[in-house]
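Sequence in, structure out.
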Amino acid sequence: MNVHKPVLLDEVIDALNIHADGFYIDGTFGRGGHSREIIKRLGSKGRLLAFDKDPDAVMSVGKELMQDERFEIINESFTMLMQHVKGHEIETKISGILFDFGVSSPQLDDGQRGFSFRLDAPLDMRMNPSEGQTVAEWLSHAKESEIASVIYKYGEERASRRIAKTIVNTRVENPIITTRQLADLVRRVIPPRKNGKRKGDIHPATKTFQALRIYINRELEEIKEVLPQAVDVLRSGGRLVAISFHSLEDRIVKRFMRDQSTPKAYPLELPIMPDSSGIQLKIIGKKIRATKEEIDRNTRSRSATLRIAERCSL
């Protein structure tokens, strides 16, 4: 089976510090690039539990991996991690957890999923097409102020108010139901500079599409929900490994790891020993970025940031 090599693959495998008999979790299976490398390093007693709420990801597993008794995949959000770990009766015995946040390359490349402004498709963007409302449905009824807030908050788009106003004015006569409609609308709102180029040469709809995708899938909220769960189920010395692709994701991961690795401030008169100071994680090394060689092979890796933390003694 020809599998697209995921970003920072070698760095992820090193970061997980895999033990042959360990129990690992891949919180974002995608197309299984990371999972397949993890399973190669497990012995007969090792286990790998994967999550992905995209049904297409589960369908892509393949016969060989699906028949491997060491592997199991669950078609749900990684926010269900704690519940399923308890179901395996292995709580606090997880050796390592990986999260590769954001949209996957196959999702971007699928012309019918609506994630990309480069392909004309229904304006959907749901990670799980059977749950929740589509972007088109939300844009059809959301208030102008709500649309502007989402685009600014999750896309850091300075033209958010103008884009929102244009969306609301346009939808009166022409419902915005395709990616091309939305991309063309944003392009009209954000014209090229005088020299004919845009800042950074990025498509003007990039930030808007990112914002709407993050909002409709609750991406940042789910990251905030799952990180504490991950710490709770890790064994002493277990690794938490997270890949993010933009500053909003990375900021959450960075702050969480910092907070969990910083001693709590207690009044000096309280009889609290140093080992009960609340430190749960130890940050391992500095953030890791893709090498030039990897970026040349896969431009998506250019924005990837890998952070690693280790569970302190329980």
